[in-house]
Amino acid sequence: MSNAIAQQRGLGAMIWDYITTVDHKKIAHLYLVSGGFFFLIGGLEAMIIRIQLMKPDNEFISAGLYNEMITMHGTTMIFLAAMPLIFALMNAVVPLQIGARDVAFPFLNSLGFWLFLFGGLLLNVSWFTGGAPDAGWTNYAPLSTTSAGHGVDYYVMGLQISGAGTLIGGINFLVTIINMRAPGMTYMRMPLFTWTTFITSVLILFAFPALTVGLFLMMFDRMFGSAFFDVTAGGNEIIWEHLFWIFGHPEVYILILPLFGAFSDIISTFSKKRLFGYSAMVFATVLIGFLGFMVWAHHMFTVGLGPIANSIFAVSTMAIAVPTGIKIFNWLFTMWGGSIKMSAAMLWSIAFIPSFTIGGMTGVMLASAAADYQYHDTYFVVGHFHYVIVGGVVFGIFAALHYWWPKMFGKVLNEKLGHLAFWPFFIGFHLTFFIQHFLGLMGMPRRYWTYFEGQSLATGNMISTVGAFLMAIGTLIFLYNIVYTAIKEPQASADPWDGRTLEWSIPSTPPFYNFKQTPLVRGLDPLWIEKMEGRKGVTPAEPLGDIHMPNASVLPFLMSLGLFIAGFGFIYQVDHNAWFIAVAVGMGLTLGSMLTRSLKDDLGYHIHKEDLVEKGDGK
Amino acid sequence: MSHDDVLNPKQMPHDPEKATLEGKNKFIGFWMFLGGETVLFASLFGTYLALVRSTSGENTPEHLFGLELVFIMTMLLLTSSLTSVYAMYHMKNHDFKKMQLWLGITVLLGLGFLGCEIYEFYHYIHEYGFTFRSSAFGSAFYTLVGFHGGHVVFGLSWIVALMIRNQKRGLNLYNAPKFYIASLYWHFIDVVWVFIFTVVYLMGKVG
Amino acid sequence: MTDHTDSTSKHKIDIHKKEHKEEMIHQVISFTLMILFTFIAFGMVILEISSYFVKPVLILLAVVQVVFQLYYFMHMKNKGHTMPAMMMFSGIAVAILTIITFTTIIWW
Fold first, then answer.
1. A3-553+602-614, what's its fold?
2. At residue A600, does pLDDT exceed 80?
3. Is the pLDDT confidence value at C2 over 50?
4. Are residues B158 and A598, on separate chains, in Cβ contact within 8 Å?
5. A387 to each of A46, A173, A361, A380, B84, how far by Cα in Å?
6. What structural domains and CATH numbers belong to chain B?
7. Coil, helix or strand for A491?
8. Binding-face residues of B in 53-112 toward A, CB within 8 A
């Protein structure tokens, strides 16, 4: 119970501590490490794809393996890299920004992480058991329902499990932000990162159930002989496409919105100015979330939904450019006249603005349904979505990691190495993806294994591959920076950036109870207000008292492990009935753990105020 | 608030389910979850509506469905919704025994519903040869109604587990939120059933 | 002193009990109406009234029943339900979009 003796323990104890932890800051570490691991795997897959496409008629990998590469690259990057990295940031930062001691459901927070991790592992086990999924990350039927082997089964089970984790995480953050804000932290005083986390969680809540249903139908079709997507028995493949994109389009806003929030906080901090147009920013975030649900069919313009449907979805898609434009201008105006400090975090943020805007503009091009018939499934689309996802999400994750690293790990990432990692990545990124727009317009289709000599595609692809290597170099320098910082850099102060929000009012890294006394929030940028009035820290809202903390628990790990085992059972019961034993064992473990959780009282424990005083100035 | 105040409150507050922060969190969180469930069932309903005409042979909705059984099931579930309202009424008046009694009645009605549903499925499979695999309509029907049935099973197990666990110690601020959200879940199951009997059975019969 | 607080809290409890009773009456009324609507719905189908008329009425009756469930049985009309109501309505909006999609643009 007492985390006070957390130091001076062996490796085994540390692992056990992380397996059972319900502390949002440690769960953030877990998300970061596993998300980073999958990011590297996804990056490796990307490099293999680029090497295969480097020259005409290349046979670096076989066509079948190439299909597995593109499928796993997309799936891994979206579900297993970007999502957890975002959850890492949310977990590390949101409770601190709103002045909370923990999230609303610490137990569920841990469960969400383990479900994600076991789902991701299940998906990647497929590499070693006879082939990864190969029907594209969109997994369209009938390509997916007729795909041989068990690859697509792994896709279905892996995403189902990790998707459940994401849904749980989303609900957790919603309730945290609704119920756990410190006194005075009204909705319109929340930092933008908290706001975007809130809207993102709403999107998760309403988007993921559609994926859940889609995956269930796919699972039933592939493993239990139902006929949802089987045209010969009256099924309809368009159902999968709709369900996938009803989830899939909000998903891209789920990815980008939190980083919009991070950029807002970073740009305002390093411009030494309050965010320009705060309420417009909030409004734009809500509007993007709202419109994000009405545009999914723009992925299906060429399906043949008819001119009316295509027109409606074209118009609603173009409408999203308006709130996004509001945001772009507000960031620019925040910097305008500010005293800008070019830290690594700020560098990534400034690079994001033009890069993402290019992606946004090609987005408007693609939104025009008639023109989309030309762009559809070409490299133009690949160029577009990498511009928004790499130029937006990945730049954002790098920026946010530089910004919040001291709060997460107690040390400021080396700035020089930060700049050094930025330039190859930034140049490499534009080199890789800008040319892909033109390759697309020249007729190079997406997902093709190779192309012929004399199609004038060779030069462009070569440039693209060179760029990919530069991005890899940038990533490696960033990794080196992490190691270098851990060894060489000194302990960071509580407020290394002269920050504006509550997380900078407590030590880096914060004590496990975050705030000794809950802070009183007196306006937007609460810490900055106190600084301007000449105070050192934030005014507390309560006298020093006992702090209630949740108990650690191994149950989330066991529940997820159960589903992991049951997942194998579901996949292989098609081959042999004996695999139902795995289903029974796994589900038994999961349901048994759930029952234990329900029946066993877990009231948490208290840190007594005497202990808090003893520790000296814990804040 | 110390553990003792939570487990053995000297005086029960007005809304025991929302008296602690944990209770408030559970309350909001569970409503959010129900919002997500709405989309989940909408996706299932959408799939069903898209495939309802994809029948094979004689097994069409008009031919299969009998309204008598569905009417009984509807009455059972609707009444169980009222009895769980009674249970929550007694919880708010801090009368644990009566709450347990009404929850018990709710569970019995729920079991009755479940029995009917199992009989119905059995009947379709053995009398009509209408299964999960016979047509896209069959897949969609069993998936939609089966998902609802699965929710009923889960809801019943949940309520029974809570009842047994707290039989001896009575109501406190720790278990009141659990009882409350379990009853919310039960109501939501009835909400879904209202649409199932309307969209699947009645409109299926109308054709 | 203690007597005094005891009597006021007892008084408070009585008020709450009265409130609960009133709420119960509303709930019983809504239950009766729900049963009535169910009878009407089944009756219309059994009497084989024209489907152009029956279908919209069936949907309407179901929606009213659900409103009763949400507002009376699940207490959404009470205080402190702003967030739940907002989330339910958002969920319902997405649900309606989904249903419209699957009944119009799936390539029949």
1. Cytochrome C Oxidase; Chain A (1.20.210)
2. yes
3. no
4. yes
5. 15, 28, 10, 11, 53
6. 17-206 (1.20.120.80)
7. strand
8. 53-56
